[in-house]
Design a protein that fits this description.
single chain; about 80 residues; 3 helices; globular
């Protein structure tokens, strides 16, 4: 599966879980947080595709939603569970 496809699937999953996805610049990798009443996932916009995919896969893995698609499970297994 192409990296752009993996990234777009992970972005779609994050949004379906009710999180706002933001790409920001800074000295961090990224992760999930709560800002006031909003659930937000922040990713460093200067990371390469692999870093963005890893960060989003890590967040989805930590959230552990019950109904993940098989594609997302494969991405998480390939990226996070090395």
């Amino acid at each position: 599966m192409r990296k752009t496809t993996q990234l777009s699937l992970l972005e779609k999953t994050i949004k379906e879980l009710g999180y706002t996805l933001r790409y920001e610049k800074g000295n961090f990798l990224g992760g999930a947080c709560r800002v006031r009443d909003d659930n937000v996932v922040v990713v460093n916009k200067f990371l390469p595709f692999e870093g963005k995919i890893y960060t989003l896969a890590q967040v989805v893995s930590n959230l552990n939603p019950p109904n993940l698609s098989p594609e997302i499970k494969r991405i998480i297994d390939a990226v996070v569970n090395l």
